[in-house]
Design goal:
Number of domains: 3
CATH superfamily of the largest domain: HUPs
CATH topology of the largest domain: Rossmann fold
Structural class: mainly alpha
Shape: globular
Strand order of the largest sheet: 1-2-3
Radius of gyration: 24 Å
Helix content: 55-70%
Distance between the termini: 34 Å
Number of strands: 5
Length: about 400
């Protein structure tokens, strides 16, 4: 009898789940846990690389466990635990740090995005230095002033609308290379090393359990590839130890924001942009009712907002409902108000079992914490065995 393949996925305790999380990840996990040895880890060490309130972290971990178990992850079929409860994760991460080239880390897309983000400190620093360049070309000065005005109006909620800091620095780099160098140094002083080393800890999470498959979204695929690079390098340098894990991309398409379908559904955009799994029926109806359905300039092409609603209907609605509205769209007789009403009721109905089970689980917090403790007890022997093998091969045992 062949051994089941191991599946590992790290879950950040980042607050309430939305339907994009469910369709993009959880739905796939529920299928995988039927025929694989699944390990689901609430990665609290990853979560602390960005600002957070320490007092809230236990609640975030609890809510994450509550949500995933209510959604269908079965502690009898899968190992569910908290990353910080298994210290082998960070110990292996340090060992892997010693063989991971800095250049590979600096090429990670998420590192570039986060380290190039327009934070207030770097922005003020740059604007102060720009006062030295008032004799620059008029067009450059205009761009600088436009960027400054945009920054002053920006809030944390619309930070994605800020002009990228790197774009502005590119505008003035031909005036003084030292300014760009100073900006780069200032920017790096503002970014914690955890963001740079994040992929190494992720690699340790995966490799610690001799993982075969890693279900991820397309934004994490690059990190899985780095994990393979690290595993390959370790095996070459110290002997065959790690399995080459493979990324398994979700079959579900990306769910977009209800209010701005050009952007992926995200809690950071604000409540009107997403449907939380814990939203009340009235909240779901109101959000879908307000969803963007602008047909756009090209009448022969389905707009992003309408396409998003059809995608949701395909996931939550009946075959009959899908056929009805697809025909109405093709005939140009579709009523979007009716589509929204049908979709809203389908989502409400589909989420009822989850919400009922979640409420029941929440009544016994000790059982949730016991599930996580039991999961750590199951995970640690596997982790210890792998770490001991790694240390022996590195000459540390």
């Amino acid at each position: 009898m062949p051994t089941k393949q191991t599946v590992f996925s790290g879950i950040q305790p980042s607050g309430m789940l939305h339907i994009g999380n469910y369709l993009g990840a959880i739905k796939q996990w529920l299928v995988l846990q039927k025929n694989h040895d699944c390990i689901f880890c609430i990665v609290d060490y990853h979560a602390i690389t960005t600002p957070y309130e320490p007092k809230e972290m236990p609640n975030r971990i609890f809510d994450a466990a509550l949500d995933y178990i209510a959604a269908g992850l079965d502690p009898k079929k899968s190992i569910i635990f908290v990353q910080s409860h298994v210290p082998e994760h960070t110990e292996l991460a340090w060992l892997l740090n010693t063989i991971t080239p800095f250049g590979e880390l600096s090429r990670m897309t998420q590192w570039k995005e986060k380290s190039n983000s327009t934070d207030e400190s770097a922005a003020k620093f740059l604007l102060k230095r720009l006062s030295e360049y008032l004799n620059a070309e008029p067009e450059t000065i205009k761009k600088i002033r436009t960027w400054e005005r945009a920054l002053s109006k920006a809030t944390n909620k619309d930070k994605n609308e800020r002009p990228p800091l790197i774009d502005l620095s590119n505008e003035i780099k031909f005036y003084d290379k030292s300014l760009i160098r100073d900006l780069e140094l200032h920017r790096l002083r503002e970014v914690n090393a955890g963001l740079l080393n994040y992929p190494i800890l992720m690699a340790a999470d995966i490799l610690l359990y001799k993982t075969h498959l890693v279900p991820v979204g397309d934004d994490q695929q690059q990190h899985v590839e780095l994990t393979r690079i690290i595993a390959r390098k370790f095996n070459h340098q110290f002997g065959e130890t790690f399995i080459m894990p493979k990324a398994q991309l979700s079959e579900s398409k990306r769910i977009m924001s209800l209010a701005d379908p050009a952007k992926k559904m995200s809690k950071s955009l604000g409540p009107k942009h997403y449907l939380a799994l814990t939203d009340t029926p009235d909240a779901i109806r109101q959000k879908i009712k307000s969803a963007v359905t602008d047909v756009g300039a090209n009448e022969n092409e389905m707009s992003p907002g309408v396409k998003n609603l059809f995608l949701l209907l395909h996931e939550f609605g009946s075959a009959a409902d899908n056929k009805k509205f697809e025909s109405a769209y093709a005939d140009k007789t579709i009523r979007y108000s009716e589509l929204k009403e049908t979709l809203a009721e389908a989502v409400v109905k589909k989420l009822q079992p989850f919400q009922k089970k979640r409420a029941e689980l929440a009544e016994d917090p000790k059982a949730i914490w016991k599930t996580l403790a039991d999961g750590a007890k199951k995970a640690r022997p596997i982790a210890r065995h792998t770490l001991a093998e790694v240390k022996r091969k590195m000459g540390l045992l």
